[in-house]
Amino acid sequence: xxxxxxxxxxxxxxxxxxxxxxxxxxxxxxxxxxxxxxxxxxxxxxxxxxxxxxxxxxxxxxxxxxxxxxxxxxxxxxxxxxxxxxxxxxxxxxxxxxxxxxxxxxxxxxxxxxxxxxxxxxxxxxxxxxxxx
Length: 133
Prior knowledge:
Blueprint: E1 2-7, H1 30-44, E2 54-62, H2 70-78, H3 89-100, E3 111-120, E4 125-132
Parallel strand pairs: 2-3
Antiparallel strand pairs: 1-4, 2-4
Helix pairs in contact: 1-3
């Protein structure tokens, strides 16, 4: 099993912007996040690109908002209350899997089984677990 950790607040994939003339592009902060994640993954994963079907589990840990009470903060950090607000988990998943493409696996269409979770934490990060099937 491959385990990768991306420190920092998770960022969701944005929708491509399509100008009237020219090529589609992605807005910030997604572009910067994707480049940063790619650099981190390249340092952590030095094996060859996987070509087999994959199971991918991703855990997203985000910061607790500063505006909540101490009691609510504790509930969130213990996992009693989980993040239900934006960004959507599928957009978070896409941002990370797009960044792994070409480094860990050849194409994200190789992912045939997934599991994703959102949590609160004092240390925002993304944890990726990859298993060949």
